[in-house]
Amino acid sequence: MLQATLNGGLTKADHPAVPVSTQELVRDAKACVHYGANAFHIHPRDAKGRETLNPEIVDDVVNKVKAACGVAVGVTTGAWIEPKVRLRVAQVRRWTSPDYATVNLSEEGSTEVMRALLEAGVGIEAAVWTMEDVHRLEASGLSDRVLRVYVEPFRIPAAGAVSFVNRIHQALDSLGMEAPRLQHGDGAATWTLLRDAVRRGIDTRIGLEDTLRGPDGKATRSNADLVKAAHKICSAPPSKP
């Protein structure tokens, strides 16, 4: 799976091509599917362009993107959007349209949010940033009910990124966590960890949420260009030993 991460918490001040409105998300999704994306992770926005977990808005945005591109669409449950756990859980529990949602194990209330997603029939992407998050996932008692585990070290340099995720994968293996994994990085580690995910034969993702630069280090023009470059890497024949 090559998941396209279209906007995250970015604005057009970060990059003019960041899709904010539903219409922009739909446009980008169509272009990314054309270039090889087969799943999406998006951050729905309200009419003022602010990230939101509001069920009516989340369901509406997800439905329109899914209708336009015909593949699975997931969203975030980020605590920065709704810091109060009780309110965040109440909103998530009312979702009906996302195929899945990421839950950051490092955030307060992550277990409660995962339970709310299960009640709503929404798949869980358990986002593991650190070794501590692996143990938080184990402690939740829900590791066997997640759709996939996100191995996503946050803001680490490219040098050492592979050895960092090696330790996380080994910890997941040692605890018998058999859910499929998606690995990605951000910033300088983005393309290093994408290539490593391809080498491991596991899912990965790419988009403006993760990086504003292509694999050549040059500024990218769009999500579609990032997906095109990533798909080329994912589709390349394995290198000879």
Description of the molecule:
The chain has 241 residues and is α/β, with parallel strands linked by helices. It has one domain (2-235): TIM Barrel, CATH 3.20.20. The chain contains eight helices and eight strands; from the N terminus they run E-H-E-H-E-H-E-H-E-H-E-H-E-H-E-H. It has helices at residues 22-34, 55-69, 85-92, 110-120, 131-140, 161-174, 190-200, 223-235; strands at 2-5, 39-42, 72-76, 100-104, 123-128, 148-151, 181-183, 203-206. The chain has an eight-stranded parallel beta barrel, surrounded by seven helices. Helix 5 links the parallel strand 5 and strand 6 (148-151). It is globular, with a radius of gyration of 17 Å. The chain starts with a strand and ends in a 6-residue tail after the last helix.
